[in-house]
Amino acid sequence: MMEKQAESTNKELIKSGRNFLGILNDIKRRPEDAAKELEVSLDEINSVLSGKKELSAEIIGKATKIWPVNARDFYIIHDDCTQGVKIMRSDESKQSSRIMERAGYPYYEYRDTAMSKTAPFRPEWIMELCSVDDNDPRNKSVQWNNGHFMHQFTYFIGEVNFYYINSDGKKTVALMNTGDSMYITPFVPHSFASRSGAKQPGLILALTYGSKITGDIQQELSTLSNLGQEFALDFSTKEKATSALLKYFREISSISYDEISKRTDIPTDRIAEFESGKTILSNTDLQKLAEALAVNLRDLLPNDKTENKVIVKYHDEGKKWFYPSQTHAYEFVELANTTTLPSSKSFEIKINNTNNEELDIRAGLHQYAYNVGNNTITLNWKFDGKFFSEKLHPDDSLYIKPFVEHNFRGEGKLLVLRIGGKITGDSQRELSFVGKENTKRAISETMQWFNPKENNNN
Fold first, then answer.
1. How far is CA 432 from CA 50, 436, 438, in A?
2. Potential cystine with 290: which of 187, 297, 301, 345 (Cβ 3.0-4.6 Å)?
3. Average pLDDT over residues 85-97
4. Which residues share a beta bridge with 111?
5. Alpha helices of 82-132 — where are they, by DSSP H?
6. Does residue 252 contact residue 260 with C-beta atoms inside 8 Å?
7. For residue 369, which of 178, 192, 119, 82 has the smallest C-alpha distance?
8. What is the value of pTM for the model shown?
9. How many C-alpha atoms does 152 have within 13 Å on its Cβ side?
C-alpha cells in the first residue's frame, strides 16, 4: 500500500512539474528567468520541473502576482481512476443516503453513484418520497426547483411523474415508467413525484453533467461579466442562427458589407437582408462568404434541428440493434438524446450470454454504467497493457475512461451514458490539426520551447 501511494505521489509530482514547464513555455520564461522573478533558487525551480519537489503555494502566489496566470493553472487534476475503471458498490451508495426536504416534508432520498474527478458527470440515485394522486401539473404537493447549471439525463424506474416547463412556458407533466428517459437543458425548472397506488416509490437515475461551458469557459464568462452574454447568439430558428453566425464572424473580422460584397460578388443589400433574417442564402453563397471570412463552411451553419429544451422518450420508441454483428453479445436500446450534444449518447443495454472473450467495446467518450438488472455480470477490461476483471452486482455503478477496451459478460441489463466532456467537438478538431505526435506534448510538456545549447539553423 505504501509503495502504491509513493508511486502515485511521484506521478503527481512529475505531472505537476510538466504542467509548470508548459506554463513557463507559454509565457516565454526559461527556468533561470522564473527563478529570478520568483526570487527562488534555480535548483528549486529545476527540482519542481523534474518532479522531485512539490510546487509550493508561496511560488504560486508570487507567480500570480507578477505573471498573467491564474492560481488554478498550476493545479493538476487528480486521477482517481488509475486502472481505467472506477466502481461504486451498492452498499457504498446506500451509505451516502440523505433525505432532502421541501416545504417542510421529505421530498427526495439522494444517494451517490459512481463518480470520478476525471469525468464530467455527477450521477445520482433519487427516490421520490412525494406521492401524488393525480396528474395535474399544478398539483400543490409538487415542489419545483429553479433549474440548475447542468445538462441532465434521467432514467426512470417505477411509476414517476416528471414535471417541467415546456417551450411555451407552461407547466407540463409526463407520465414515466421503467425504461423511459428524458433529457433536460440547463436552467429549466422541473420536479419529480411518485404516483400513488404504486407498489413502491418511484426511482430516477439522474445523471447531471457539464459539457463545454463549465470550468475554464465558465471562469472566462465570469470575468467578462455582462459582456459574456453577447456570446449567446439567437439560435431559436435555423435562419436566425445562420444570420447571427454570419454577423458574428463578419464583425470579429471588422469587414464591411462593401468589402465582403467585393470578395463574394453578393450585393451588399442582400447580405444585410440575410443578417437581419429577411432572406435566405444558398449553400453556394454561404461557401463564398465562408471563404471571404477565412472560416470553414461549418462555422456558418446552424444545427440541423431546433429541438425542445426538454426531450421525453418512452422506452418503446427507442431504436434497437445488436452489437457486434458477429456475436450479438449486446442488444442496445436508444434512450433520450439531443442533437445539440452530439457526443452525449445514452442506452439501455441487454447483455446476452456469450463465451466470447473479445474486448468488444471501445468508446472515445467518458462512460457511466449502472446495473439496472437483477443479475450479476462481469466487466473485463485492459488498461496500460494489463487485464482486469470485476463482478458488477445489481445496483453497482461504474465509470470507464475514454478508449478503454472492455466487455460485459453474463446475462443482465445496464444503463449506459457516454459523454464527450471538453475534448470532443472543436477541441478534438484542433487537437487533430495539431497532430497525434504533437499531442504528446500537449498532454505532458517534456521540453523547453527552444534549446539554448544547440545550433538550430535549419
1. 29, 7, 10
2. 297
3. 98
4. 125
5. 90-95
6. no
7. 119
8. 0.84
9. 26
Taking CA atoms, 281 is separated from 270, 271, 284, 301, in Å, by 9, 9, 8, 11
Looking at the chain, the number of H-run helices and the number of E-run strands are 12, 21
- Per-residue pLDDT tens digits for 380-404: 999 999 999 999 999 999 999 999 9
Question: Residue 145: which of 179, 100, 176 has the closest Cα?
Answer: 100
For the chain, the average pLDDT equals 90
Contacts of 453 (CB under 8 A, 6+ apart): none
pLDDT tens for residues 202-258? Answer: 999 999 987 666 667 767 777 777 887 887 788 888 888 888 889 988 998 889 999
Looking at the DSSP bridge assignments, the partners of residue 366 are 419
User: Using CA atoms, how far apart are residues 455 and 389, in angstroms rounded to an integer?
Assistant: 52
CA–CA dist 190, 193 (Å, integer): 11
3-state class (DSSP) for residue 400:
strand
Report the SS3 class of residue 368: strand
Cβ count near 49 (within 10 Å): 22
Per-residue cell: 364: 472515445
Q: What is the CA radius of gyration of the chain?
A: 26
Amino acid type, 181: S
